[in-house]
TrEMBL record:
Molecular function as annotated in GO: alcohol dehydrogenase (NAD+) activity; metal ion binding
InterPro entries per UniProt: ADH_Fe/GldA, ADH_Fe_C, ADH_Fe_CS, Alcohol_dehydrogenase_Fe
Signal peptide annotation: none
Gene3D superfamilies the record matches: 3.40.50.1970, Dehydroquinate synthase-like - alpha domain
Family assignment from sequence similarity: Belongs to the iron-containing alcohol dehydrogenase family.
Ranges of residues in domain Fe-containing alcohol dehydrogenase-like C-terminal: 188-385
UniProt keywords, alphabetically: NAD, Oxidoreductase
Keyword Nucleotidyltransferase assigned: no
Claim: Metal-binding is one of the keywords in the record: no
A Pfam family this chain is assigned to: Fe-ADH
Protein name, as recorded: Iron-containing alcohol dehydrogenase
Amino acid sequence: MSSFSFATSSNIRFGEGCAKTIPSLLDESLSPLFVLTGSDSKRYAQLIGLLTQSGFEVFIHPVNGEPDINTVTLASEAARESGAQCVVAIGGGSVIDTGKAVAALVTNSGKLIDYLEGVGKGKALVHDSLPFMAVPTTAGTGAEVTSNSVIGVPKAGVKVSLRSASMLPTWAVVDPELTYKLPPEIAAYTGMDALIQCLEAYLSKFANPLTDGIAREGLRLAARSIRAACSKELDTDAKADLCAASLCGGIALANAKLGSIHAFAGPLGGMIPAPHGAICASLLVSCFSANLRAFDTRDRDNPSREKMNDVATLLTGNPQAKASYALAWFESLCNDLPLKSLGELGLEHSQIEEAARKSASSSSMKGNPIELTKFELVEILEAAL
């Protein structure tokens, strides 16, 4: 067995209603708090009120849309001006990613672009981040337990990562109750992101025994609950399952990397105005199919090929299931949920070559279990269009 390392958030709280315990996790010395929320901060007035009632000075900063260089820079400047001693993010993956970046930049000098992978200087963050608390309100990204922040760079037309081990959240507070009112469309594409992250971390060439166990459990939970969790009828057990699957996916990917789906999602996120999870969902079937064909034509004995059969068993409950069953299961799921194709999300055929080229050098592609050719990358995008 090859050597590996493993890291995750220092303190994870999970359970219905656990968000109400937030003040008890924070020391008075961490005031003032810089609290990031979604665009409608009034939705979180009750949670923020718990903080103020506990004596914390709070500065609220709404986040509109997915983070890019400008929004993260402005938020970081506001956090410095507030004298923040701690950053709290209450929202979806975009809010949490913004919060992680803010907590890191407040303690490190220089411009954000200096620290970004691929498009910047790639400098390492010298100083530890401010203490950071992540309170997810969607079940999908697992950002509450990862050590990177995905940030859009409009001039380069890509999304890239700000990454450091010190960016792992100090506290992850996962309360399924905060996801109960998600519209089915948002629940679907964020839930698909959770499932896909467990899938890719499990198949990754950097997987290890710890990430395998976590990713497999996440896949099992997502498979049994994603349809019910995305229904218009509230199913609290299914919502909790999907939150746990998202948490599993975040822990697994932070230690095992991802694969071709997320390798495409980064560049595509900078090219079309579509949510990250929706892009990932549109690529699931074509990427899984392409990887399966690649294994069967040139590396059938690869251990990850056998893992694809195991994925089929996890999804279907059939111990004799083969990888082709998983592919059929994914196709059925995508048809059942309110999801869109890559073309419906805004990608033009003329953009395929550019997207394939950018994805080939993405950090997530390094985790893909088998190397894909340029032709295969183009073929994936054409099939997903």
